[in-house]
Amino acid sequence: MSIKIQPEAIASLRGFEIPERLGFGTVMAPVMFRARYQDGRWSDGELLPYGPLALDPAAKVLHYAQTCFEGLKAYRCGADVALFRPERNAARMAHSARRLCMPPVPEALFMDAVRTIAAYCANLVPGNSGESLYIRPFLMGTQPDLSVTASRAYEFYVIASPSEAYHSGNMRLWVEREDSRAAVGGTGDSKVGGNYAASLLSIARLKERGYDQSLWLSPGNRHTIDELSGMNFFAVMDGALHTPALNGSILEGVTRDSLLTLARDQGIEVHEREMDIDDLLALVASGTCSEVFACGTAAIVSPVSELGDGESRYKLKQAPGPVADQLRRALLDIQEGRAEDRYGWMQKVQVASY
Ligand SMILES: *Cc1c(COP(=O)(O)O)cnc(C)c1O
Questions:
Q1: Whose CA is nearest to atom 10 of ligand 1?
Q2: Which of 126, 127, 246, 334 is most buried, by CB atoms within 10 Å?
Q3: Fold of the domain spanning 3-164
Q4: What is the mean predicted confidence (pLDDT) over 316-324?
Q5: Which protein residue's CA is at the shortest distance from atom 12 of ligand 1?
């Protein structure tokens, strides 16, 4: 597969200056990657200047939400720039695409795309601990046709954003007892925009009450914990780590899997299981549950200081607690090259010169 590097893309890279304040996902790299799918085959990839897309107003994505996305990061890893477990994102995007009846982006094309973006944006990877180049691949059905059938044409893009960590500091979670973000048999285990759209009303309501994130319950039973809108959920009880087992409505986070691996290797007892919300709240109230935290690529590890449920408030004894701290540090030490990468998680990027 060959990738065309447009001269205009190089020109926009040369003219780009990183602002001092980054935030998360607001400063965009001046280039983007694109490949198109038509008549059963993928085009070559191209690196283009970042800019608006031309979409037909009848494009299926705009009406029937035929789209999925990924999120991964390139880190300053010692003297190199490296991607963290990108093959997991390639596999998950293929899974999300199949669920929405879209052709999966072949792993080789996905990897070429994120490597090309990281190679050309290597200068834009910020260097402070916790900062990185956030990379956002997405796929969408573009066929202009209002019939409810799968699109026959698709576009795959990768954009990138030099960023700080998504959410720093403690979070307050609201137990969402009314709405669901995903359905039984639905798209909860796929990374699709529709799940996020379904979560926005809950987030707007809880912000009014002074909370930061919804804690979603399983749509089937409404009393076991699933996860947050874009992060997986962990609790520490008597020194052991507990997280909801994958059940079809939880998104399988790469960070979740990485933290479970690190915890097991550090001798922390790990339980993947059904977690009843009322049991958890009682254990927080009694102090047996000493820490709660959430994790994801964007936010890394975010400690939870309080859970709100109706009129009741449950404060955590420790936020940030020692287990969250230890795991966050262990993960960042690998990602930023201070610790040996015993698991082969980091993939070095060949930096492009221009
Ligand atoms: C992306 C996402 C996560 C976190 O996954 P990571 O691979 O760790 O970034 C968790 N939950 C949901 C719903 C997500 O969309």
A1: 231
A2: 334
A3: D-amino Acid Aminotransferase; Chain A, domain 1 (3.30.470)
A4: 95
A5: 230
Please state whether the peptide bond connecting residue 126 to the residue before it is cis, i.e. omega within 30 degrees of 0: no
At 167, the pLDDT band (50, 70, 90 cuts) reads low
What confidence tens digit (pLDDT) does each residue in 221-260 have? 999 999 999 999 999 999 999 999 999 999 999 999 999 9
The domain locations on the chain are 3-164, 171-320
Q: pLDDT tens for residues 258-289?
A: 999 999 999 999 999 999 999 999 999 999 99
What is this structure's pTM? Answer: 0.97
pLDDT, the chain, mean:
96
Nearest ligand 1 atom, CA 257: 8
